Amino acid sequence: NLLNELKLKFRTGDVTTRLVIVNSGVFALSLLLDITFTLFSIGPDRLAYTALNYPWNPVMLAHKPWAPVTALFSSWGLWNLLFNMLVLYWLGGVFLKFFTSNALRGLYVLGCMTGMLLFTGIFMVFPSLQQRGWTDSIPLCSVCILAFCTALAFRAPDATEQIPLIGAVSLKYIVITLAIIDVALLPHVNPATDAAHLGAAFTGWAFNYMLGRGKDLTAPVTTVAVWLDRIIHRKKGS
């Protein structure tokens, strides 16, 4: 019954609901796999979790080509996941008051792509990072979320949301505060991770800037999403 209910929520829910379900499902799957691997002494600790993350090294990426997709829905841990889902559902709903579902989905993907490029680029530009034992692969859920949150902050900086026990707070202060909390929840990893977050924030700003000039940066993502949706429905119909 729970599985059927989740399927119904996914089919009928908006883009934020779908993203929350997918993120939670990926986390649960990696957790179950890691428990199984530990019980049977398969591989190193947190093997499944690491396999889902995005590696900076193209050689490593060639051994797990699924990582650019799975990293979109991976978080650092349980508390980071809960924080990410809260922000995604809350500010995602606020985002949809000013933008479309296609824009949210597109920024989620584009923010991740920019983050991946900068994460890899920083490692390549500064080889010293490769020699210090820094974390060489990262989850990117929080990076994706920061992209559309930044676009929201630039679109309606003075719009307010009611915060319990505090009152009305401007969106720009909400986004800044949540970005600081997000960085604080990250483990001590490496400067390349900060670069990935900055790249996502730049993507959100660039989207809002270009949209004001009549160009939608998320249009290619929407085109691909529509194409995939048609393929899926065609297979279901057959």
Give a summary of the structure in a few sentences.
With 238 residues, this protein is mainly α. It is built from 11 helices and 4 strands, in the order αααβααααβαββααα. Strands 1-2 form a two-stranded antiparallel sheet. A two-stranded antiparallel sheet has the order 3-4.
Any overview of this molecule?
It is a single chain. The protein is built from eleven helices and four strands. The chain has 238 residues and is mainly alpha-helical. The chain has a two-stranded antiparallel ribbon with strand order 1-2. Strands 3-4 form a two-stranded antiparallel sheet. Helix 7 (101-125) packs antiparallel against helix 10, helix 7 (101-125) packs across helix 11 (219-237) and helix 8 (141-155) packs parallel to helix 10. The chain is globular.
Average pLDDT score: 90
**Which structural class do you get from the secondary structure elements?**
mainly alpha
Quick one: overall form? globular
Query: Which blocks of ≥5 consecutive residues have pLDDT under 50?
Result: none
Give me the count of strands: 4
H/I helix tally = 11
Order of helices and strands: HHHEHHHHEHEEHHH
Separation, N- and C-terminal Cα atoms: 26 Å
Give the helix level as a range of percent: over 70%
Radius of gyration: 18 Å
Strand content: 5-15%
- Oligomer state equals single chain
Physical arrangement of strands within the biggest beta sheet: 1-2
